[in-house]
């Protein structure tokens, strides 16, 4: 541990300042009076900022500074939060209180911490002026993560004739290859975490899952103002709002910052404090995971480049030799969710093996079904979707003899209500979403030819 500070013993976490120069934003934090942790976000070929966007840009930098601090706060979770370099009004403070509490829910669960009552963002400005409309160009940033969901969004935007740019944060050859395959203009934003954070982690600071989607969202708000985009379209489907489990009376959701509650609160802050005409929404919000995979299955365009395997996107540590490790919950769920909608040979060619014919993976698929276990701490669909997918496969000759499908049919299916296992109801779009009216028919077309 750095001799000057132990984050776990710190009394205060400080948002020290944020700066921007020559396309690079520097975000500075500290525990007590200890050394500064500085994160850098690099915006390539950053244009000169139009004067009429200056206030919005400064507000976006403030928001990014406050949201990205969650990566550092978690190292010590001190009881006092001090905002020195950013403006924080009551609306923003409420968003941050929820983000740090619920976005760190999984982290708190694994570290056996209770963050309730500990996280209180100070209101440094009683009232800030409402954001003005900037007249931003009518074009959309669509974050690409390398998996099926964002690629479905890309194709929806293309079918709607929306001017869109594929954007990703950090260095990932896999994501870069997916972005290139979309045929859209591309924007790759750099993110460099403070090296001191890794030193703290190695020395025993608190560590664990953080709400990465929230951080990426805040970075893209800065990018939208800087480059000129009036919309940011994420690809979070409705199961992201479902809790993974309940711990000490509080729901814990691995995907909290992908959920509907965060989308609404964050979008409200962006429109109120950054730009009244900057739209933030998820294009897939009405759809289940199965509905998304059904849409993805319609095209082979991305079969040889996409991957939802999270082991490909580790910051540290080894990555799998292939695009699919076959061992993580994401691999298991995506294989299962695609199986009802893809010809079996196509699915096996994508993954290189049949995950449903491996008896050693029984426990992993049981967790996906929430059978004798809770859902994995991963971005996977709901247990009802996994059960329905396996029920559909159990009725098909080409699948029913595979080890895990046969086990499901004989051991698990008899315990379930057949009426709750139909695929069709799970493909019906939900009414809860923030999708612009002009785009909604193109999203619902994902369900039109079931």
From the structure above, extract its key features:
450 residues; alpha/beta; 9-stranded mixed β-sheet; two-stranded antiparallel sheet; 13% strand
Tally of individual helices: 16
The overall average pLDDT, rounded, is 92
State the end-to-end distance.
57 Å
Shape: globular
* Strand runs, count: 11
The low-pLDDT segments are none
Instruction: Estimate percent helicity.
Output: 25-40%
* Alpha carbon gyration radius: 22 Å
Biggest pleated-sheet summary: 9 strands, mixed
- List the secondary-structure elements in sequence, H or E: EEEHHEHHEHEHEHHEEEHEHHHHHHH
- Major sheet: order of its strands? 4-1-2-3-7-6-5-8-11
Oligomer: single chain
Strand content is 5-15%
Query: Which class best fits the helix and strand makeup?
Result: alpha/beta
Quick description:
By secondary structure, the protein is of the alpha/beta class. The chain has helices at residues 54-68, 70-73, 90-103, 105-111, 148-159, 173-182, 195-202, 212-227, 260-273, 289-296, 329-338, 344-351, 362-368, 383-394, 403-412, 440-444, and strands at residues 12-21, 24-31, 37-42, 80-83, 140-143, 164-169, 186-192, 231-234, 245-247, 250-252, 279-282. The chain is built from 16 helices and 11 strands.
């Amino acid at each position: 541990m750095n001799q000057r500070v132990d984050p776990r013993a710190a009394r205060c976490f400080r948002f020290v300042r944020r700066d921007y120069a020559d396309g690079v934003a520097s975000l500075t934090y500290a525990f007590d009076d200890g050394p500064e942790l500085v994160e850098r976000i690099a915006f390539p070929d950053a244009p000169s900022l139009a004067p009429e966007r200056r206030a919005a840009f400064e507000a976006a930098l403030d928001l990014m500074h406050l949201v990205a601090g969650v990566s550092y706060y978690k190292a010590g979770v001190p009881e006092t939060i001090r905002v020195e370099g950013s403006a924080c009004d009551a609306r923003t403070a409420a968003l941050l209180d929820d983000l740090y509490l619920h976005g760190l829910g999984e982290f708190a669960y694994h570290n056996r911490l209770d963050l309730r009552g500990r996280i209180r963002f100070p209101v440094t400005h009683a009232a800030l002026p409402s954001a003005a409309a900037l007249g931003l160009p009518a074009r959309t940033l669509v974050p690409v993560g390398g998996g099926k969901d964002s690629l479905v969004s890309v194709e929806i935007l293309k079918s709607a004739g929306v001017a869109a740019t594929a954007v990703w944060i950090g260095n990932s050859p896999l994501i870069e290859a997916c972005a290139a395959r979309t045929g859209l203009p591309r924007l790759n934003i750099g993110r460099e975490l403070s090296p001191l954070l890794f030193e703290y982690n190695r020395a025993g600071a608190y560590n664990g899952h953080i709400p990465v989607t929230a951080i990426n969202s805040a970075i893209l708000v800065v990018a939208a103002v800087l480059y000129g985009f009036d919309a940011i379209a994420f690809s979070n489907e409705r199961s992201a709002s479902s809790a993974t489990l309940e711990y000490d009376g509080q729901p814990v959701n691995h995907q909290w910052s992908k959920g509907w509650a965060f989308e609404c609160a964050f979008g409200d802050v962006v429109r109120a404090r950054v730009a009244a005409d900057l739209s933030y929404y998820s294009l897939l919000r009405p759809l289940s995971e199965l509905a998304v995979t059904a849409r993805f299955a319609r095209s082979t365009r991305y079969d040889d480049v996409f991957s939802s395997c999270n082991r490909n996107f580790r910051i540290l540590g080894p990555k799998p030799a292939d695009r699919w490790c076959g061992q993580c919950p994401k691999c298991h769920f995506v294989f299962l969710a695609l199986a009802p909608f893809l010809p079996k040979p196509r699915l096996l060619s994508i993954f290189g093996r049949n995950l449903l014919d491996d008896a050693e993976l029984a426990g992993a698929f049981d967790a996906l079904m929430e059978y004798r276990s809770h859902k994995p701490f991963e971005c996977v669909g709901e247990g009802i979707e996994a059960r329905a997918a396996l029920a559909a496969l159990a009725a098909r000759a080409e699948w029913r003899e595979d080890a895990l499908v046969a086990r499901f049919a004989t051991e698990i299916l008899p315990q379930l209500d057949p009426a709750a296992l139909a695929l069709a109801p799970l493909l019906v779009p939900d009414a809860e979403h923030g999708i612009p009216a002009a785009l909604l028919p193109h999203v619902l077309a994902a369900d039109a030819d079931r």
